[in-house]
Amino acid sequence: MITLYGFGPAFGLPDMSPFVMKTETLLKMAGLDYSTDTGGFNKAPKGKLPYIDDDGEVIADSTFIRWHLEKKYGIDFDKGLDAQQRAVAWAFERMFEDHVYWAMLHARWVDEENFRRGPRAYFQVLPMPMRLFVPRVARRRLRAQITGHGMGRHTESEIVALGARSLDAAADFLANKPFMMGDEPTGLDATAFALIAGILCPIFEMPLRTAAERHGNLKRYVARMTERFYPEQTEMARWVA
Ligand SMILES: N[C@@H](CCC(=O)N[C@@H](CS)C(=O)NCC(=O)O)C(=O)O
Fold first, then answer.
1. Which atom, in ligand 1's list, is nearest to the CA of 44?
2. Looking at ligand 1, which residue's alpha carbon is closest to its atom 16?
3. If you count DSSP H runs as helices and E runs as strands, how many of each does the chain have, helices first?
4. Total-model pTM
5. Is residue 55 packed enough to be buried (19+ CB in 10 Å), middle (13-18) or exposed (0-12)?
6. What is the pLDDT along the chain (241 residues), one digit of tens a residue?
7. From start to end of the chain, where are the E strands?
8. For ligand 1, is residue 143 a contact (CB within 6 Å)?
9. Which of ligand 1's atoms lies nearest the C-alpha of 63?
């Protein structure tokens, strides 16, 4: 049995973290049985979520989890793609995870109003006094990470320009295909869906969301992925209707 450790549903999304959402989507794509656990952060092998416990084998990081699932269960999330298509899928995945993610993180955690509506509200379930200091400590850590990555060293408008450029690239590449690589979902879709849905989340007031909303095909894509993998997520379906 597989246990997926994540943060849990938040902001109308299946999980606050796009990497957890990506991993859950991969598990759904693979048709594997799994359960979720939101109590694993303190034991996370790399200090981040997600990680999984697969019958006692613990694997951290969404990409290593993907590779583990492919190897152990004989799955190929990129089935039907040739080497060149796989290379393109990998490059787009890196764009989303190592570039778009940081622009979204900046908008959620650094912007005062978004932080209040999103991450701080999320921590309100904690008892006092943790409710007060956990969001502050988490915010300080996340800010340091965003600066360390380099994205946080830019001005807000520069960050939006970079993020919007990547969203334009994703929209142009998707064009009128149902899924990123063609007629059927592949591994890249788990990542692209998680990031684009996170950016379209209306709880956050951000220029990056406006940039995503300009692309009708990205909205329809999120609607398609939601219908296929998260039919119970009615709130998410409403944003993109
Ligand atoms: N490369 C990792 C990234 C995971 C990641 O960044 N997780 C974030 C949530 S989106 C996290 O756990 N952050 C908590 C922290 O850094 O304190 C993956 O693909 O799983």
1. 12
2. 48
3. 12, 4
4. 0.97
5. exposed
6. 999 999 999 999 999 999 999 999 999 999 999 999 999 999 999 999 999 999 999 999 999 999 999 999 999 999 999 999 999 999 999 999 999 999 999 999 999 999 999 999 999 888 999 998 999 999 999 999 999 999 999 999 999 999 999 999 999 999 999 999 999 999 999 999 999 999 999 999 999 999 999 999 999 999 999 999 999 999 999 999 8
7. 2-5, 34-37, 51-54, 57-60
8. no
9. 19
